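HOLO CASE FILE
Compound: 2NL
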Amino acid sequence: MLDRIRDLKEKFKADISRVKTLPEVEKIRIKYLSRKGEVAELFARLKDVNATDRPKIGKVLNELKTHLGRELENLQSGLQRKTDKKALDLTLPGRRPFTGRKHPLTKILDEIKTIFMGMGFRIEDGPEIETDYYNFEALNMPKNHPARDMQDTLYITEDIVLRTHTSPVQIRVMEQSKPPVRIIAPGRVYRRDTPDASHSPFFHQVEGLVVDEGINFGDLKGVITAFAHKMFGSDIRVRFRPSFFPFTEPSAEYDFICVFCRGKGCRVCKNTGWVEISGAGMVDPNVFDYVNYDSEKYTGYAFGMGIDRIAMLKYGIHDIRLFFENDIRFLEQF
Ligand code: 2NL
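Model generated. Tokens follow.
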């Protein structure tokens, strides 16, 4: 048996000395080390060796196997290096390494955060899976409110929803701290919508909340206008239109002068000269009752804005779905 092992080793040595290419290495590996290869055959013969010698022979066989494996590996990596060297053409232009970058929505959110931090706002976040209480009840939306409809909201159970806005974050912050409050709450929100160019079942929102003694609607207009100027330029005018939300009173929707045509009229503003941004208002006293704030002493304003919408306006993107398809050809443009 030991002779056979020695012969095999010699044969192997002769075989590998002739090898010049990678496929040849593979052929030899199969010949010696595959499941039906020469080494396996010797292992099969081990049962014919007498019991006293068997452990010793077994050990030698194992060593042989490791040895052949290692030799083949060395040979392979040697040949690989040679082929790599041949493939190096110094006249070709260099290959640029792939570098990642921030998602356009992250870039816009970073800008929004910087602008509000500059005006003294802190940034807060909270869970995307919310209770009915934080998402609706504490925001003065009673059980029969249409926004609570299964058609509009993604329910996990009767009592647990995917948040439809980041307002629950504001409620949680007010529960945990006393006025003055000056925060923005950015994050992902969910609605039961069929995707199209302007709808996605998830999107991104920033809400702002300021509560203190003597806060009024003028403060709200000042902050929104300052934001418009910093984000889109100091020529951007802002207008507020009366509206209704259950959680603010009075409520308004606010528009910016079209950031594309600067008010002249174009496709983006449908020739109105204005683009709709979102809603805002003075916090309804009922909301303050839910968080045990004294609504006789404190007033506050709140506003929302869509991050995706702002990014679309800023970059001239006409389909919200592009943000979520993760197509590198789109993402690498920002
Ligand atoms: C929109 C724009 C808005 C708020 C969000 C808010 C939050 C609290 C209290 C009162 Cl805790 N209001 N957020 C207010 C007005 C508008 O988002 O169009 N929402 C339907």
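CASE NOTES: The chain has a mean pLDDT of 93. Residues 167, 170-171, 207, 209, 245, 247-248, 278-281, 283, 287, 302-304 surround 2NL (CB under 6 Å).
CLOSED: yes
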